[in-house]
Amino acid sequence: MHLRASLLATSLAALGCAGAAPAPATALDGRDPVLAEVVADDPLAGYATTSTIRGRVVDATGAPIEGATFHAGVYTVTRTTPSDADGRFGVGIGHGYGTGTEIPLTVSAPGYVRARASVPLGEQNSTLVLQRGASLRGTLAPTSGGEVPATVEVLLLSGSQTQVVLARNGRFEMTGFEPGSDRTVQARIDGYVPLWFPRLELVDGEACDLGELVLDPGGSLVVSAVDHFGVRIEGAHVEVRRKESPSFTWSALTDADGVARLEGLLPGADVLVRTTPPEGFGRSVGVERVERDLVVEPSERRMDLVLHRAVVLRGDLVWSGDGEAPWGEDRRLSVRVRGTNADGRPWTHDGAVPGTGVPLGERESVEFVVWAPPGVWDLALGVTREGERRGRLVPIGTFDVPVPTRGERSGELRIGRVQWP
């Protein structure tokens, strides 16, 4: 069976938007002797699968492509192997898909256009052909007083295609870009301001010269993250997002000293700095995240942040309307709480009314639960019945939400009875 992979045709939605990186292959782990009748040199030998697709991936001349990775668009466990020196690959599909089912495969390889093919499950001799497409080349140039590194990685993005090339002595060229008109290309080099080139014509089999790429160090930001007790937080994710182009981002993780350094920021850009604690820091309920506004300067800026573990707020909804309380119905209730103060960015978080969804009979009140960050907050609360649009938020008072006890992942505060509506 011979299948020619169709090219992906997703273009940039807006100038400066970064394309998505190729989907990585599922890691092979967990040897299982259950798989029967496998040949010794089978790429999937020794791995448990219900059914498989096997074959070769080659270029337009029929030469094998080594290192191609595969992603199967299915809702079950998959086992994949990168193609070997002969271009052979294997994709194992778990339960839920019968033999003959068309399986969408996305194929990626450095220097080739990422492609998609539909292959029947159980096919053992498929051939997937990848195209070289258009190529991009350019020359790196220093700013005044600077110099170009002897070797440096250049990340090139066009539409959904991402390729990494090593520039040597300031020059680079890379194939694997989908041909087309009105293309936007973005070039990113670690530590320098990203560059983008709009409205390019990319021609199959031809090189598009980006010209001279000036390495501008731009601005930098150093973020220091600690908890309320001054303990440095390692592994917090710091993201700088340009407001004008929300998908244009820089990111880094804080180190063992709780510090993250982001370089190559675009001077003059109005950005949002979003810092998210690492897993295990708290309950990971969203309100632990810290956001700050910043205008990038052509110099180093510092930002010291305190990340707080969240606190669960518990209160009692007391029905004050006409007729029976809605918790006598079979529709679930949910709550939304908004906190504001004079110093920080307002936050909003959704919570639950446990037990609703089944008639609870005649009860004076029901408990609601919602998360909040520590601080003194003016709170407003809204209640919504399942299937209805969210209602307005009504002020319920000012509350001093305490910092959780040291060593605890969260805290708790009872805020008493709240009349509704």
How would you describe this structure in keywords?
five-stranded mixed sheet; 421 residues
Report the uncertain regions. Answer: 1-41
How is the largest sheet built, in terms of strand order?
Answer: 1-9-3-6-5
* Sheet with the most strands, sense and barrel status: 5 strands, mixed
- As a percent range, the share of strand residues is over 45%
Number of helices: 0
Between the first and last Cα atoms, what is the distance in angstroms? 66 Å
Radius of gyration: 27 Å
User: How would you describe the shape?
Assistant: globular
By oligomeric state, this entry counts as: single chain
Mean pLDDT: 83
Structural class, from secondary structure content?
A: mainly beta
Helix content: under 10%
Compressed to H and E, one letter per element, the order equals: EEEEEEEEEEEEEEEEEEEEEEEEEEEEEE
Topology overview:
Layout: E1 3-4, E2 6-7, E3 51-58, E4 69-72, E5 78-81, E6 88-93, E7 102-108, E8 115-120, E9 126-129, E10 134-142, E11 151-158, E12 161-168, E13 171-177, E14 180-188, E15 195-202, E16 207-215, E17 219-226, E18 237-242, E19 249-253, E20 259-265, E21 270-276, E22 290-295, E23 300-306, E24 311-319, E25 333-340, E26 347-352, E27 365-372, E28 375-385, E29 394-401, E30 411-420
Parallel strand pairs: 1-9, 3-9, 10-16, 17-23, 24-30
Antiparallel strand pairs: 2-8, 3-6, 4-7, 5-6, 7-8, 10-13, 11-12, 11-14, 14-15, 17-20, 18-19, 18-21, 21-22, 24-27, 25-26, 25-28, 28-29
